[in-house]
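Subject: for your reference before the review

Hello V.,

The reviewers asked for a structural picture of the protein, and I figured it would be easier to keep everything in one thread rather than splitting it across files. Below is the amino acid sequence we used in the manuscript, unchanged from the supplementary table.
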Amino acid sequence: MVFSNETRKQTIHQLKHTELDLLIVGGGITGAGVAIQAAASGIKTGLIEMQDFAEGTSSRSTKLVHGGIRYLKSFDVGVVADTVKERAVVQGIAPHIPRPFPMLLPIYQESGSTFDMFSVKIAMDLYDRLAGVEGSQYANYTVTKDEVLQREPQLSADNLQGGGVYLDFVNNDARLVIENIKEADELGGLMASHVKAVGVLHNDAGQVVGLHVKDLLDDTEFDIHAKLVINTTGPWADKFNALDDHEKHAPTLRPTKGVHLVVDGSRLPVPQPTYMDTGLNDGRMFFVVPREGKTYFGTTDTDYTGDYEHPRVEQEDVDYLLKVVNKRFPESHMTIDDIEASWAGLRPLINDNGSSDYNGGGANSGKVSDDSFTALIEVVNAYEDDQATRADVERAISKLETAHAEAGLSPSQVSRGSSLHQATDGLITLSGGKITDYRKMAAGALALIRRILVDRFNVDAPAVDSKKLQVSGGHFDPTNVEETMAFYIRIGVDAGLSEKEAQDLANRFGSNTSRVLTYAVDGPAPGLSLKETMSLRYSLNEEMTLTPVDYLLRRTNALLFHAETLAELKQPVVDEMAQTLGWDDSVKAQQLAALNAAIADSQLAYLKTAPAPVHPE
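And here is what came back from the structure prediction:
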């Protein structure tokens, strides 16, 4: 397939001259999930994104496909059941992206602790049943204090009781988006980045019939006509709905900002993803995750009202995360100068439901009264012995009484649930949710869309089994991942790559690896390795890569996890892109400047160079 700057021109032409069945606004994971399912259903589908695909929230997550064990601290068994089932679905439709990687859960005995050794075992056993991994290599187990410290010697031993190990999945969030987008394009959808909605079109009856948009690459404006329009803009959902002057859309979101910091793995060596209480008695937990020789940790969760396009890591975010990581790893003595990269992202949290927060309940879940907790444990134990059903457990949970409650909701307590709504003028909004649920959210939206299309427009679109609709790069047996990856690694080595280079390509591109290897025909580009040349040329021609930042941040992770390579890599990347995309020296200079700015932001240059605060005597 070809999905490039050249095909974008054709796509723009078609968007101008085609009445679509469905126009999707927003090219993050939610919009991408709707697009692939709609296109597979034969719905005449278009999607516009004002930035690069996944440039917003969907490339700024914790980069895990969570099983949701954190929700068990507020006894949201239903949430966990749904989450682990859906995680398995995502792994099946994108088998080269989410990968199982057991999570370590150190348990500390201190005020405000989420779990103790007793409750974590109950939670993990229940989790295994819900995830269907009992008796497998991924079944949970507990470890002693000494074993935890053997794994992570830098962890604080103070009040450490032991730990649990349970299944979770690492993820490449931006790759998951682009693979959905590529497959939607392959299925006939019209996918266009850098196109911004600036107005909503209505017919004489006041119904939405499309959008007035602006192509941000050439500043031209035009109309796109569609029977239905769906808003999947994530944190921008309320802002987009404000363009619809035929409706009064009440704000539905409370965006919060999450920050992650990256250091070299030698500064914070951890053997596996680790999830634990902050130790600050603030009801929060945080992650420490090894990746590609680095370690990243986060996240914050604070209300956000700033620039949605460019949320920044602020000094208070750094101070908080350094305080947390230095408390749990007291010998690390981490400072801002150790930070090699960072990212900040916005979460589109639903404002009016605090039932299950990002960290698993938070303070609002309260401390469960002793009688309620004892009754629940008895039912869970019976469930473990096959003497009770899940319905019995859920009834016990519904009877939980909290010892205290708080009137207000903190940012960490706002629901991560999703919302699907159609306004009276026909505009559909799909918002909220989390990356693990994207396929399921899209399926719900498609059920509504198909019903409206047949009822109002006599367009009959067959349903597809989206649980088996594999994304680009994921077209292989999900039960045979290791063997399939080994095959692609072998053909990469045969093409002249080292085993490590071949493994990197196979993990990134999955079943498209063979296509990537065809770009070796002209040999390496000046200043680039053969592997980097193939990867870049493939991304330019088949992944709608339009800028160096697209490539180095979202098509690869170089900007986040390979900061030490950027000095030598950036100019050859710009030069090769200039040759492919026909840039003159002026455009090359602009693109290099934009890349340098993105690198400086990621590396927190604006904080590291800031003058030290002056404290009065």
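For the response letter, the relevant points are probably these. The CA atoms of residues 231 and 429 lie 5 Å apart. The mean pLDDT is 90.

Happy to draft the paragraph if you're swamped.

O.
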